[in-house]
């Protein structure tokens, strides 16, 4: 087994949002960083979210004021860091007097408006519904409206990984950490991938494996975990677009949970999420029939247009790893994060394990992680990520202007294609469109606006390896591709990757 040299400062296990967030923060502070992910970036929990950057209005009921405050501050910071993949979104909450009184909702929204700095997002307000135009049932005559943000969750992960790589980090996807142990003041980390196995060393090890955090400590490291873990499954369904307009709905239910109905990719509506304890195989998380019924029932209780199972186009599920606070109710388990650092002896190489966390607060979690590692790296640079743009946000005046430039500069680019490119890549879109004047110059056409030039870019710059990586996590074109079109893309990727492999070997 080969050992790579020199020794890394930090090795991060896990390519979800928390792993890449810590990797980019560390790399930007001048530390050498290695990150491995056993599958694709964002291939599990981080791409199975409700696609929101939000403060978490419902967490106020559980008195999670610190978490909500931090999330609300991060909402504005992330909107500025990545305006191409994050956008403001207005939420409508129909008032259900028997569930929560109006005064309670007004109070909660007042706190929500003022608990964090709100520069770009509009304040909440009380609204009345017009029965003739409202998609809600006629008995729902009034409600409330407030602001949060929508995000392309998988791309948020990829952009952080790109930034980490550009700052010198080594990103190894499809690479599993099978074991790690301390020796002579460093971690020896055993890694496996399709081409074989190898070993790296690091002065600090970060366990950001999400729902695998406990399993990694106990089985891969042969240690005892400092915290218990609660695994909570959240599932979503996607249906054809069910109402006009660009606002989301937040639906209250009799069990005091809430369900979102969110406009998604212009043609669809995303409905979720659920909360129930999970104890199955973490690599085979699927929606249950009970979850499907639950989401359909909450939706049908609110909207005139009724849905059935036959309307569901796609489902996805993820497992959130939450630090065990001994709550009886899965919905009440804290979404706050806990960081555990365990140097068992003085001068031991530290192990930092991440329990819990939210997509919205990944950047603050990373800052906290670096604070925990500061004694090991006293000369590292100070925090820097708050004002640093993510890839694609550099020199981006607006997504709308970029769309105009794409349509004017490249012949045969439709509005929908320009919109997808601009929102996915921001200013980085020119990295694969340079010297292009017409779509006929983009190489093989796989359909639905996906061309070889973009596929090559995703393989070379964004670690895409399979059609699933490209269609579901990088471009969101999976809904539109037929089985034959996917096969055509797979054949192209196989040839491309074989060529890249032979070029590297040469």
Automatic annotation (TrEMBL):
Molecular function GO terms recorded: glycerol-3-phosphate dehydrogenase (quinone) activity
Top-level taxonomy: Bacteria, Pseudomonadati, Pseudomonadota, Gammaproteobacteria, Moraxellales
Name of the protein in its database record: Glycerol-3-phosphate dehydrogenase
One Gene Ontology CC term in the entry: glycerol-3-phosphate dehydrogenase (FAD) complex
UniProt GO BP: glycerol-3-phosphate catabolic process
Domain FAD dependent oxidoreductase residue range list: 9-326
UniProtKB keywords: FAD, Flavoprotein, Oxidoreductase
Domain Alpha-glycerophosphate oxidase C-terminal: from-to ranges: 384-480
Any Pfam family hit: DAO
EC number, UniProt record: 1.1.5.3
Family from the record: Belongs to the FAD-dependent glycerol-3-phosphate dehydrogenase family.
Reactions that this protein is recorded to catalyse: a quinone + sn-glycerol 3-phosphate = dihydroxyacetone phosphate + a quinol
Cofactors that this protein relies on: FAD
